[in-house]
Amino acid sequence: MNIVNFTPQSAFFGGIIIGLAVIIFFIGNGRLAGVSGIVNDTLVSKQNRTDNFLFIVGLVLGPIFYAFFTKINIPFLITSSLPIIISAGFLVGIGTKIGRGCTSGHGICGISLLSPRSIIATIIFMITAIITVKLIG
User: Fold this and answer.
1) Would the pLDDT of 1 be above 70?
2) Torsion-angle region of residue 31: left (phi > 0), alpha (psi -120 to 50) or beta?
3) How many Cα neighbours within 13 Å face the side chain of 16?
């Protein structure tokens, strides 16, 4: 992390918006807004398929609309290697199955419910992310 790019105000307001979205999703659907579970249910389950699909579409279109309407250039660098992207997606999918959820499910929804499993999973996510950044960066 480059301390020059640290933006606590936008991070704070972004967190509030994410929290509100989770609350609205829960009130509207009675389900937690864990992204890996929603993606899995979209592909596998016949229940709530339309809601789940619209949630995923919103996750993709939201940043695109934001960048378009605000005219703010958001630098985003990712490899263009298709085998690496597919391998990474596969590994993330395996990890979310093993961990029984992803960072949004455990880190946002689970911690707010004071779930011990989610707290431990989020700590493991963060430690793994820090180690990965240190090894790669």
Assistant:
1) no
2) beta
3) 5
Joined together, the tokens standing for residue 102 give: 């992803």
Domain containing 95 equals 3-136
Q: How many domains does the chain have?
A: 1
Give tens-digit pLDDT for 31-62: 888 888 888 888 888 888 888 899 899 988 98
Helix, strand or coil for residue 136? helix
What is the spatial distance between Cα 49 and Cα 119, in angstroms, rounded to a whole number?
29
To the nearest 10 degrees (0 to 180), the angle between helices 35-44 and 49-70 is: 130
Report the run of H or E that residue 59 belongs to, with start and end: helix 49-70
CA 5 to chain centre: 21
Burial call 119-133: b when 16+ CB within 10 Å, e when fewer = eebbeebeeeeeeee
pTM for this one?
Answer: 0.68
Backbone phi, psi, residue 46, to 5° = -90, -15
